[in-house]
Amino acid sequence: MATSSVEICNSALHKIGAARITSLSDTSKQAIILNDQYDRLRKEVLRGHPWNFAIAFVALSATVNTPIWSDWSTEFLVPSDVLRVLETDLTQDQPWEIGYNVDGNKVLFCQSDSVTIKYVKNVTDTTLFDACFEEALAYRLAADLAYSLVQSQTVQQAMMAEYRKVLATAMSFDAQEKSQDTIIADEWTLIRG
Prior knowledge:
It is a single chain. By secondary structure, the protein is an alpha+beta fold. The protein has 2 domains: 5-48 and 130-175, no CATH class; 52-121, no CATH class. The chain is built from 5 helices and 7 strands; from the N terminus they run ααβββββββααα. The strands form 2 sheets. A 4-stranded antiparallel sheet has the order 2-3-6-5, with no helix packed on it. Helix 1 crosses helix 3 and helix 3 packs antiparallel against helix 4 (153-175). The model has no long low-confidence stretch (mean pLDDT 91).
């Protein structure tokens, strides 16, 4: 596994045949572009799949505001490290929605007085990254860099195709590291069966 974002970036540069960097703050064209794009693309790849290394749980804190929409009685502040809410501990008959409150804060609206969420965390520590995630991120960076650095749409398209292939494999491996979801038959499933 990579020990730094620079190593992941250098893997991306290697894939398109571009020169390596020593730091994201270098003055080289590669470093300037990577410095602009790395964080955004890391978040994109993290958000795109519930990676096991990036799953976290947190009990949310209610705000003092009353939601402006009458559909909801309570709003809970969503922490800044939340990239994607996957689940809540609310029951199926307790709907919820992510939105923004009157103060401009990202919140979860619902009709409950407490809620815990399972979410994809904005992991920045590269030592926590899964090796397959790193490879997928490197290919995503390579696809983004290809046209700017080697002026080739062919290379760019090849990197994007490789990214999709590596991502699918990484997601498959990641999904195998947990128990399978249980499907519960309901009236609709039984009628269709």
